[in-house]
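> call design_seq(struct)
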């Protein structure tokens, strides 16, 4: 139970706060599962966005395929030129 990140209830991916109100087929999702890895990536993407907004309030966090583009492409400077300078490829 400590390793649970979420679950699948009747095939539907849910987080650990989901309430099951009737008999249902349940599968526990952990970090060892592909869905678990996606849940971890999704959560860390939110944490990264929060941290960037704290450090660079002018940054705009966009909605997109953050996991496919590895976070940086979804963070844009207020002037629209792409990620804030410290997050651009090749930045120290």
């Amino acid at each position: 139970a400590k390793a649970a990140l979420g679950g699948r209830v009747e095939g539907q991916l849910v987080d650990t706060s989901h309430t099951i109100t009737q008999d249902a087929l349940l599968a526990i999702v952990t970090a060892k599962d592909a869905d678990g890895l996606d849940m971890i990536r999704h959560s860390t993407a939110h944490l990264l966005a929060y941290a960037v907004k704290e450090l660079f309030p002018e940054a705009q966090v966009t909605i997109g395929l953050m996991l496919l583009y590895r976070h940086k492409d979804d963070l844009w400077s207020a002037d629209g030129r792409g990620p804030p300078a410290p997050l651009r490829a090749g930045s120290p």
